[in-house]
């Protein structure tokens, strides 16, 4: 841009420079890449007061003002006519310019008084502020060429009254329109903003909010006092009184506790003294009984020695008895084996008989099929020969007919009959020549063969021997191959049987292992090993209870319930009668066993109350069930047993108890009023209810389910036996096949050896001279056979060719002399032959299908017959083996009978020895009975001693425990049971004291849960809190009063400030408007003359005549009025720079000139930068930029 006389007019004077030197103003603007300015543009120097910018539309006038706003840090991009920062770069960076830079140079007076700039800028004569943006988002500020933050730049401009986000110093045409349309309250708001009371309104609002919070706090404090503090104080006072009562009661309880402890200590001491005396007496009696038992043992030992001496004399008898037992065991084992062998023999015999019958049927059927096949095959072969002959005749006839129809030539362009005749003669000549060659070759071969045989005759014996060895080896190989083919085996069936046997063995091992585990668990806690006395019959011992009953499969879940209900009864050992019980008890010495053993004599046991079916129905009705509802069952209904032998055992163990589905049912049945129908019950979960009132429940994971284990043991044992039987059946079929496989393996090995031997002989013959001659002779003989065979073939073919020559010669003759007759005859022959061929082919197809079916059936029958014959052979061998085993077992049986006779003879001789043994045995029984009585007496005394010892120990422990817990016992012991003392047990009965103590303990325990031991402390603290809250309430009320007083005082000052500012603005408004529009007056008038706060309105008068409304004004007059008000507001708090953007757009030339003169006179200390298109505006400017 240019300035002064050419492009701008610069009017400066020494007075102006001296006058404006005391303020800060923009000296120059530098633009580069900003909006329409692609290159660097320097706008300046600017005048300190009036600067104008003009030019045509689109030349970038307003862009200069936008650049100033840009540097000031504007955030509202719409004010600079952009949507984003990138729009401010020249052509948005599309023309190679990627950044926009604007620099403002400010001139400052360091000596100015009250300089608003911050330190150190107030002392700088020149200040430069630069803003630069780059495409992509980078934005930075430079303050005096130093990087600065946006906040620092804004604070700098705020000090100069240049807030770009509230730009009163920038006036645009839109702002003028906005001001002219303002309502009275809005105009008053402009006055408030200028006067600074807007900030007061903000602070006043904050004070009102604070006062409201204070009021709310007062209400909260009142509520806390009324609803929390005062009730809490009242409650704590009550709890304090209760606590004092509790302490008094606790002290009384401690006194009774000391009395009770003293009585317990005194009683324990008395019990200790009495128990010690009784224990000494029992110890003396025990010593006497032990002496009697020792005497009895000496007598028993003497009798036992006599018995042993007697038994030594009977040593041979004992050995005979032992031999008898061994023989009987062996006999039982052999009997079982013989039984198994006879069963297997019967199976073999039956199977062999069935196989022989099957063999006969298959052989008969096979013979019939073979006979039928021979007949069908002969018919089929004859039919096929006939078809072949007819085909040849038809082919010859067709060829003749085709040759005849084509004039003696073959169909398809073949040779004529004469040419064929010529070819046949040529072929006959060739065959005759080949025949002569073969005759010559045969002659040479015979001569060479004669010479080789002559050489072989010379070698003689060695060649013959080698030939003999080779023939023998070849015969051996052929015999073994035949034997291997005879030892055929069904590999698929063998593999299947092996796999089945393997699986069966695995299942047997698994079943035995599971049975052993069950048996081991039973032995560890339930099974009792019982040894029968000598001479007692085994039927006297029945076994344990759990072995005599079995849990039904439908009730396996009840095993734990039955275990909990009957408990140890399942382990009772059941014997026949009392005598057997005594003998077994003594024989096994159960009296000294660490484990408790109970023997139940089945004939003498007493069965208690039994729940019959009618009682079961009544109990089901009692709990609301139908008669057949299974939720209530008798224990007898869930087990199986031998009704003939063990019914009494089952009734004794399970007859008087029930199983219920729920605990409610069980409890209702057990504890019903009708005692005759009440029975012990148990639930499936294991809750037990006894008629005596005992109930048991809770965790039952440790319970051992004996019945379930025994059932599992029996199941696994039975399963293993069944599987072993199945294994024997599989082995019955598998063993012959395994033997065949073994024989086949052996034959295969022998065949391999024989083949190796034959190969070695042949190799030896090939490497020796005689062998070479023999090989040459063999080759010549083969060559002679080949030549002979070929000679015979050539002779036969030559005969056919000669016959063909004769036939062709006859055909040529017929063709030349009887053509038509021959053609008709050939056509008829072809037709007949075709019909004949079709009929024969259909017959052959039918016969071939039948032959194929016959062949398949024949192969199947032959295979089945071979398999049956092999099975018969194997079964026959197995049958012989079984028969042999049975014969051996029969011989052993006879031997056992001889031993048994010998044993019976020895037993009769020893009968007399048994009488003496009986006497000694009777004496021993009597001594043992006496000893048992003494042992029982000793046991009773020992129980009494144990009881006394326990009582003494308990008394001593109680005394020691009481002494450890109560240190005062030693000092107060002399007062115990003394009249008049605090421990007078006769004056205050201990039972009464204990009852009072229990009552006090209950009451103290009850109060201890609710009493507040900290009530006194809490009451004191709460009262202090009450005083603090009252003080806080008083303080809040005082603060509220102070805030209200300050607000009232500030409201008065606000009104005074508003009135002062209004009068100042009104004065400026009137003066500016009169200068802009001569002969017109303007003012800011109150809407309500009595209250300024109702708002202000602009009034206008022409020649002292005031208008009622602004609507009567023209657009230019309205713009002047609004502009006057804006400038009047700005004049109150002037900024260093003002920016006007075409504010004269709606004004005529005279008004525009008035604005320029007004600026010069009204704002002498401010810098104006104005964009205008009218000469009346910029004619007053100090500097004009075009």
TrEMBL record:
Coiled-coil region list: 737-965, 997-1039
Keyword Glycoprotein: no
Alphabetical list of InterPro entries matching this protein: P-loop_NTPase, RecF/RecN/SMC_N, SMC, Smc2_ABC, SMC_hinge, SMC_hinge_sf
Single GO cellular component term: nucleus
Keyword terms, alphabetized: ATP-binding, Cell cycle, Cell division, Coiled coil, DNA condensation, Mitosis, Nucleotide-binding, Nucleus
Pfam family, one: SMC_N
Biological processes annotated in GO: cell division; chromosome condensation
Top-rank taxon: Eukaryota
Range of residues in the leader sequence: none
GO molecular function: ATP binding; ATP hydrolysis activity
Segments forming domain SMC hinge: 539-670
Compartment(s) of residence: Nucleus
Region: Disordered, residue numbers: 368-388, 401-421
Family: Belongs to the SMC family. SMC2 subfamily.
Record-linked PANTHER family: STRUCTURAL MAINTENANCE OF CHROMOSOMES PROTEIN 3
Protein name: Structural maintenance of chromosomes protein
